[in-house]
């Protein structure tokens, strides 16, 4: 039903935009239809955001197009080279930017060619071509926005309900890890549940950012909400086999007396939270839920003061920290916090991928431009138009190489569809209503499948590029030779696209994964040595690392067996937990009331991370020695609370490092070259105790 409603609104927008373009006597009326196909989105906020950034990209592209034409009007080769560099930079920017901001970069490269194409034969007309292009884009954007805003209710209630549901799902997830009476979950089910929750939180965070564009209630608090969702991601990610709180009684090294003593206490809290928040909005149930969390945290502290077992102390310390994070997340989501209104979560910029996508876009544009120049092909501008637009669009995809085949295939399907349209439909049209219905009929498959997880990029290519393959003007002039010429140019552009993205510059998913692993280890090291900059907001650092983990999981899914990928993801999440422990040590060290001897011990512990990426076990031994000196001759429970917390943090950090030394080591198996004889050890299944390979 939702897909049918979306398709109907797109067809209405397309019809009105095309009618207005014909009425205004625009030079390229189908450009308004192309704009509708690109900016249409079921979420009104996403549509508005997409439209704004598309307009920005179009204006920038128009300015650059006029400048390039003016600078190289007498030098075609230099023009093609300058265009290739510009498109490469646009592809890099599209890789870096998040959400629909990337469309500003996409449209910059796309607009340069679409404006310059009519002016190749008459450079003096490039300015008028730019104005015509801008006019068509404005018509498409305004029409689509008007139709969707009139036909779509804009209420914050459904989104707030989704946020409440996600919080309860996170509470259920925590409950499942501490419910001793529940059925044991297999490793595959655990990894699937965790990955599903993290992906759902990510999608909800994007939806909040979209809604903030056109919904005032969300816009005034979207940073707090995104901070709360980021905290939920951190809570979900905290459960991995290397965490004391997650290993429970089944941990291989745990003796019966070391069993976590408070699983039931945490489980009871989670059940109480679910009961309180099941029928009550977060804003109303926040106060009572936070009070219950605080009471449980105090109960855990009392147990810690009477617990002789080191492992139990570690569990209780980790549990108290987790409950504190859950309380902060609840306050942020219920608009009770206020401390995160200035929070700015930073996107992770993956430079190697951006550089590769930039090189692919530049190479594809250069190949198309030189082919056009050498062959003097009249359809060369159409080929360049396609490869530039497609290269820019692929740069926004998580895996451009895999998406290139689908995008090229979807575009190629537009050729037989266009042939059928020109042979059997367009010659029989005698009015605008029939033209509208005919275009809707041929574009409907692409519109309908545009948001399909598997076929979406191909359907998008079909619906967008079919509009530029249909030579519909006012009036229509039928020229079969010109039409076939442009279709052949599009098909050749599809071949060049796949050639550049999958053959000449193919991806190396293992190398990309190795870079992400090294980046995670270096980030923990820089955090310990005081070189990380996140303005004192821990959630900024954690969210940045979680973005790396998401990309690592995607890269490894392409090149490693599922067990190996899961173990590396577990190790990556353990590295984030290690960073959390480092941040707590920093906080204890920076406290004004910390005695000088304790501060020196904490600074020594943090300095031990200097060897983390060279010799992780040396860092672990150093932490162990510091703990031994602190607790020499006395029970841990006799230590002051601050010192007991410091020892617990160092003990947990030491355990994590010992569990994942090859992950933290910059010379670990994933870092080895494919030519190295033992490189295949990367694909070896990890040991059953959960250690990373």
UniProtKB/TrEMBL annotation:
Segments crossing the lipid bilayer: 7-24, 30-48, 55-73, 79-97, 102-120, 126-150, 405-425, 431-448, 455-472, 487-505
Main location per the UniProt record: membrane
Membrane topology type: Multi-pass membrane protein
Keyword match Metal-binding: no
Keyword set includes Transcription regulation: no
Subcellular location(s) of the protein: Cell membrane
A Pfam family reported for this protein in Swiss-Prot or TrEMBL: FUSC
Keywords linked to the UniProt accession: Cell membrane, Membrane, Transmembrane, Transmembrane helix, Transport
Protein name: FUSC family protein
Organism, scientific name: Gluconacetobacter entanii
């Amino acid at each position: 039903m939702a897909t049918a409603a979306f398709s109907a609104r797109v067809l209405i927008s397309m019809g009105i935009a095309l009618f207005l373009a014909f009425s205004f006597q625009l030079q390229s009326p189908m450009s308004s239809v192309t704009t509708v196909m690109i900016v249409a989105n079921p979420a009104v906020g996403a549509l508005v955001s997409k439209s704004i950034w598309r307009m920005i990209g179009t204006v920038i592209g128009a300015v650059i197009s006029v400048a390039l034409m003016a600078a190289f009007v007498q030098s075609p080769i230099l023009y093609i080279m300058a265009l290739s560099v510009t498109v490469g930079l646009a592809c890099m920017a599209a890789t870096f930017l998040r959400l629909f901001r990337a469309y500003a970069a996409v449209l910059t490269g796309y607009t340069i060619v679409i404006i310059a194409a009519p002016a190749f034969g008459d450079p003096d007309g490039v300015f008028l071509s730019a104005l015509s292009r801008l006019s068509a884009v404005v018509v498409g954007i305004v029409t689509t926005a008007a139709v969707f805003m009139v036909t779509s209710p804009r209420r914050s209630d459904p989104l707030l309900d989704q946020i409440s549901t996600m919080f309860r799902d996170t509470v259920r997830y925590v409950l499942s890890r501490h419910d001793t009476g529940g059925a044991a979950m297999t490793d595959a089910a655990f990894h699937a549940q965790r990955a599903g929750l993290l992906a759902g939180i990510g999608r909800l965070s994007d939806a909040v950012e979209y809604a903030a564009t056109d919904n005032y209630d969300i816009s005034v608090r979207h940073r707090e909400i995104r901070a709360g969702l980021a905290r939920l991601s951190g809570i979900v990610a905290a459960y991995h086999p290397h965490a004391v709180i997650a290993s429970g009684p089944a941990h291989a090294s745990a003796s019966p007396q070391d069993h976590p003593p408070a699983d039931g206490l945490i489980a009871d809290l989670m059940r109480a939270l679910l009961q309180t928040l099941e029928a009550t909005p977060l804003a109303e149930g926040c106060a009572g839920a936070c009070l219950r969390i605080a009471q449980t945290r105090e109960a855990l502290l009392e147990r810690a003061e009477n617990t002789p077992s080191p492992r139990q102390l570690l569990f209780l310390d980790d549990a108290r920290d987790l409950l504190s994070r859950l309380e902060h997340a609840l306050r942020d989501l219920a608009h009770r916090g206020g401390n995160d209104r200035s929070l700015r979560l930073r996107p992770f910029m993956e430079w190697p991928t951006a550089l590769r996508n930039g090189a692919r876009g530049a190479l594809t544009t250069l190949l198309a431009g030189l082919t056009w120049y050498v062959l003097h092909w009249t359809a060369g501008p159409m080929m360049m138009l396609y490869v530039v637009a497609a290269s820019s669009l692929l740069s926004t995809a998580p895996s451009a190489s895999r998406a290139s085949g689908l995008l090229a295939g979807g575009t190629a399907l537009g050729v037989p569809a266009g042939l059928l349209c020109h042979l059997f439909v367009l010659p029989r049209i005698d009015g605008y209503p029939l033209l509208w219905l005919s275009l809707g009929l041929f574009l409907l498959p692409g519109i309908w499948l545009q948001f399909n997880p598997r076929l979406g990029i191909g359907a998008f290519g079909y619906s967008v590029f079919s509009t530029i393959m249909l030579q519909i003007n006012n009036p229509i002039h039928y020229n079969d030779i010109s039409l076939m010429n442009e279709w052949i140019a599009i098909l050749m552009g599809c071949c060049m696209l796949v050639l550049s993205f999958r053959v000449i510059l193919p991806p190396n998913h293992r190398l990309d994964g190795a870079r992400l692993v090294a980046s995670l280890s270096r980030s923990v090291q820089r955090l310990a040595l005081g070189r990380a900059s996140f303005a004192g907001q821990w959630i900024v650092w954690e969210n940045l690392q979680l973005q790396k983990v998401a990309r690592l999981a995607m890269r490894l899914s392409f090149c490693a067996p599922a067990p190996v990928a899961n173990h590396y993801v577990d190790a990556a999440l353990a590295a984030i937990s290690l960073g959390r422990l480092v941040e707590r040590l920093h906080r204890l060290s920076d406290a004004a009331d910390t005695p000088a001897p304790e501060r020196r011990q904490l600074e020594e512990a943090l300095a031990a991370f200097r060897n983390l990426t060279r010799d992780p076990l040396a860092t672990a031994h150093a932490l162990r020695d510091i703990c031994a000196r602190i607790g020499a001759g006395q029970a841990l429970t006799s230590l002051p609370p601050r010192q007991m917390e410091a020892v617990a943090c160092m003990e947990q950090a030491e355990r994590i490092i010992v569990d994942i030394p090859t992950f933290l080591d910059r010379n670990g198996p994933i870092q080895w070259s494919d030519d190295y004889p033992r490189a295949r050890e990367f694909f070896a299944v990890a040991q059953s105790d959960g250690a990373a390979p």
